[in-house]
């Protein structure tokens, strides 16, 4: 029942694809390229190093690494074919035929954005909007079902919260973050 509803939502979205070329192009940019803006942000935070920027960069990388690793673990136990393998759909970007569940892009982008939201970085809402658009675009371009990106997003949120409120405060990590490399 859940998978049927997931498929129906996917098809509802996929039937709109190609009707609006501008939206298709916009979604392709978010699905394929905007993720690199997050990489540039992390590099900029580390390089700039004002107001504990390196601590923020470390926390973002920590959350990203954990969420991505959790995805790898989940994929060992759950394999779901991508929509373009199982169905005749409109696919706007190329993708390998690996497991669709959960979405790596969704968990990565959301874990980074939620971490940025929690550490109150400037423009944090823009980063959150970018993460949401990355997440939705993966369905739009035909490489994920909605449930894949929802699961990825929930993974990203959960890991960002755990990282921020628990792991970063653990003694060994807190001690590491007090080292001179993390401060101006």
Q: How far apart are the first and last residues' alpha carbons, in Å? A: 55 Å
> Regions with pLDDT < 50 over 5+ consecutive residues?
none
Q: Summarize the amount of helix as a percent range.
A: 55-70%
Coarse shape: elongated
Would you report the number of β strands?
0
Mean pLDDT: 92
Q: What is Rg?
A: 18 Å
Strand content: under 5%
Order of helices and strands: HHHHHHHHH
Q: Biggest β-sheet, characterized?
A: none
Please count the helical segments: 9
Q: Decide which structural class fits the backbone.
A: mainly alpha
Task: Detail the topology: elements first, then pairings.
Blueprint: H1 2-14, H2 21-32, H3 35-48, H4 53-77, H5 83-86, H6 104-118, H7 124-140, H8 146-165, H9 171-177
Helix pairs in contact: 2-7, 3-4, 4-6, 4-8, 6-7, 6-8, 7-8
Brief write-up:
The protein is mainly alpha-helical and about 180 residues long. It is about 70% helix and about 0% strand. Helix 4 crosses helix 8 and helix 7 packs antiparallel against helix 8.
Note down, in words, how this protein is organized:
The structure is a single chain. The chain has 184 residues and is mainly α. Helices cover 69% and strands 0% of the residues. It contains 9 helices and no strands. The protein has helices spanning 2-14, 21-32, 35-48, 53-77, 83-86, 104-118, 124-140, 146-165, 171-177. α4 (53-77) runs antiparallel to α6 and α7 (124-140) runs antiparallel to α8. The mean pLDDT is 92.
């Amino acid at each position: 029942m859940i998978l049927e509803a997931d498929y129906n939502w996917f098809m509802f979205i996929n039937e709109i694809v190609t009707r609006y070329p501008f939206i298709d192009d916009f979604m392709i940019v978010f699905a394929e390229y905007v993720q690199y803006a997050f990489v540039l942000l992390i590099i900029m935070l580390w390089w700039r190093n004002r107001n504990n920027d390196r601590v923020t960069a470390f926390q973002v990388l920590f959350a990203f690494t954990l969420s991505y690793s959790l995805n790898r673990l989940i994929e060992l136990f759950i394999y779901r074919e991508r929509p373009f393998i199982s169905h005749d759909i409109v696919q706007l970007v190329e993708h390998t035929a690996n497991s669709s569940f959960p979405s790596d892009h969704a968990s990565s982008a959301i874990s980074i954005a939620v971490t940025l939201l929690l550490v109150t970085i400037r423009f944090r809402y823009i980063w959150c909007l970018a993460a949401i658009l990355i997440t939705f675009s993966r369905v739009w371009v035909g490489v994920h079902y909605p449930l894949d990106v929802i699961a990825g997003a929930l993974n990203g949120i959960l890991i960002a919260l755990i990282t921020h409120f628990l792991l970063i405060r653990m003694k060994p990590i807190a001690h590491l973050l007090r080292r001179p490399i993390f401060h101006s």
